[in-house]
Amino acid sequence: MEFKQIVMNRYATKKFDERKIPAKKLEELEDLIRFSASSFNIQPWKVKVISDDETKKKLAPLAWNQAQITTCSHLLIFCADTDIDGLIDKLEQTIIAKGSDKEKISGYVKVMRDFAKRLNPEQKLAWAQRQVYIALGNALNGAKALGFDSCPMEGFDPKGFATTLKLPKMLIPTVLCPIGYAADEPLAKVRFEREAVFI
Fold this sequence. Notes:
By secondary structure, the chain is α+β, with helices and mostly antiparallel strands. It is built from 9 helices and 4 strands; from the N terminus they run ααβααβαααβαβα. The two termini are 31 Å apart.
């Protein structure tokens, strides 16, 4: 499927048919998410993947019992990772492990560290959450490209999710993306005219 078809055919699925996505397909989607763009390549996100029905049932009331939560194959919980300094350390180590010279990347690492120093905790969260939505875009279009469906969801209780899943404090649930095979029909796409968008 060409990218234009993917974008035009993707829609926010409201109910899935409960079939499981094959493990290989899930791994492919995880790679598409993993290779998402991010500012400085810091990748300030973690994605909690839930596939068992028991956990999905526990989480459903925290998302107003929307059918996507319990009927999806896998529930992807995109979390903003606010440990920006730790991520910069990890990225530096990863770049060096891939063969780059520590001295040659020191300037770039300093730019990242100086950027992080200027952010207070609220700004770190806001910045990380903006990056999360870039990764979400890859998940939505990636799912359609791989032959299944998805639904971006902000209608949930982030604190309740964090508590139920026992997430570390630096991980803030930001947006949900249930994936699976649609059991509903898409409505006609409604978008503003080009003139209303490009000014």
